Each structure stands twice: as C-alpha cells, then as structure tokens.
Amino acid sequence: MLAESIALTGATGELGSGICRLLERRGVPQRLVARSPERLPRVENCSVVRASYTDQAALLRAFRGVDTVLFVSAHEDPARLWLHRTVIDAAAEAGVRRVVYTSFMGAAPHATFPFAREHSATEQAIAAGGMRLTALRNSMYADLVPRFVGDDGVIRGPAGSGRAAWVARWDVARLATEVLLDDDHADRVYDVSGPEPLDLHETARLLGEVTGRDITYHAEEEQEARRSRAGAQQWQVDAWVGSYLAIASGETSVTSHTVEHVTGRRPWSFAEYLRAEPDSWRHLAA
What is d(CA 191, CA 104) in angstroms, rounded to the nearest whole number? Predict the structure, then answer.
C-alpha cells in the first residue's frame, strides 16, 4: 500500500479512533484529518492535517494525494447536509477515488427518521461526485441505548413494539477497517447490525440485569412524545421522535450478516456488549 493512501475523518470520535488504532495494528500508513488535532489518538505511521467540515480549502489540502477517504458523518445539526457536501466537493476536487461513508440503517429519501433521509442524500452526492462509494448503513449504536433511560428508570418513546438490532461501534470499526483495505468493497451498500433485533422491553430488561435496577419501557404515543420535548428546537424534536418511529416502523429491525461475513467474527449481541463495556451504563447502576 502506498504511503498515506487512506485518509480518516472523525478520528477524534469513538468510531474513528477505533478504526485508526486498528489500521495502526496492521501497519497501514494513514492521514488523520481533524478539526482539533490535539484530541487525536496517539498512533504511529500517520500524518495529521487540521481541517473542519466547514473549510473546503483545508479539506482539499487534506485529501490531495489520497486514494480512499473514511468519511464519518457529521454530528447532528440543521446544517449537516451542507457540511457533508463540503466534504464531498473537496474529496472530488482532490481526486479521491473511493469514499467509505458511515451511513444509517434504512437510509432512503422517504425514510421515517429525518437523519436517514440526510444519509441517503449524502450517499447520492458521493456517487454523483464521481467517486466509488462504500456505504456502511449502521444500525443504532449500542452505547447510546443506556442514555435512553430517564432518571426514573424508564425508557420513553413512540417505538411501539418495534425492534432494533443494536450494533457496537467496535464491531463497526472492525468492519470499516477491512472495507478500507479492500477495493472489492467499492460500489457496495452494507446493512450493518448486531446479531439480533430486540424490542425496547427486552432492551430494558437486559439493562436492568447489568445495572441492578428496575428498568422498564413505556411506549408513548407520538404527540405525547412531542409534548415531552417541549422547549427543544423543532429539528431536535423531529429527530428524537423520528428515531423511535423508525423503530416502530421496522426500519431498524434489519439483521445482517455483514460484520461476520467481512471480518470473520460475529458482532456482539447487546447483552455481550453490556458485559464488555460497563462504562456505557455505569451511570445507571444502583
């Protein structure tokens, strides 16, 4: 592999830093692109370029000479699609050949979850930019689930009896590493999930078992859920409610074999994740 033929965005986050360390273990040279380089993990065999998703000129400099870019989606924001297009335009102008993009399960123009629509538009923009796309349509991250629990030990949301195949970020990192290193994954869209879809009653029970608390799930009606978020910005309310409605609709229940097929090892179940990563739920413990 040529020196620094891979550039990573988002390497200060949990997913990106995990991929960065896995590439280091494989001896792969990498270029780390970060808004705050001082927050990057310490890894060998890499160079660092300061650039944010708002600065197309800096991104263009960061991507020049790079063959493949890991594009970690921006944080939730009303301007996220604009930020994504800034990254895509810079990558296309720099001559990047392939983009591995962290998308979302069920990404589609008319998806229930508003951000899944943004991910769909981003996938389309990458392809329209003339670059080969590998889309990792990740299910909801397992480490986010403990944050759904209120102070009273109740998960509330309009998810009905729908299911989600929660996926550990570490499993996504393992998958992304393999995908970045093999061009056979170009021009592919992968559903990325944990091994089993759980409803929120089952999810709450598993959280209760590890935390030693009585954790339950209350299925709200949509308007009830919206009233409970009164005072938040409208886009935040729509996104929060939409994430639960996507579960209710079945859009997040897809269970794929992508992680095991590509990496040779199956992903953690939600119960296995909770046992392996107690820091994610320690704040809930009795």
Answer: 8
Query: Between vectors from CA 175 to CA 109 and to CA 190, what angle results, nearest 5°?
Result: 30
In the block, which residue shows the tokens 């895509």? Answer: 88
What pLDDT, in 10s, does the model give residues 106-164?
A: 999 999 999 999 999 999 999 999 999 999 999 999 999 999 999 999 999 999 999 99
Is residue 107 assigned to a domain? Answer: yes
Evaluate whether residue 99 is within a structural domain. yes
User: How confident is the model over 210-235, as pLDDT tens digits?
Assistant: 999 999 999 999 999 999 998 999 99
Report pTM. 0.95
Helix (H), strand (E) at residue 46 = strand 46-50
Which run of H or E residues covers position 92? Answer: helix 80-94
- For CA atoms 74, 80, 86, 92, the dihedral sign is positive
Domain at 54, CATH number: 3.40.50.720
Question: What digits encode the pLDDT tens for the residues 51-77?
Answer: 999 999 999 999 999 999 999 999 999
Among residues 78, 73, 120, which one has the least CA distance to residue 238?
A: 78
Domain membership flag for residue 123: yes
Domain count, the chain: 1
SS3 146: helix
Provide the domain limits for residue 60. 6-141+167-194+254-268
Q: Name every residue whose Cβ is closer than 8 Å to that of residue 186 and which is 6 or more positions away in sequence.
A: 98, 132, 133, 134
Q: Over the stretch 38-55, which tens digit does the pLDDT of each residue have?
A: 999 899 989 999 999 999
In a domain, 130, yes or no: yes
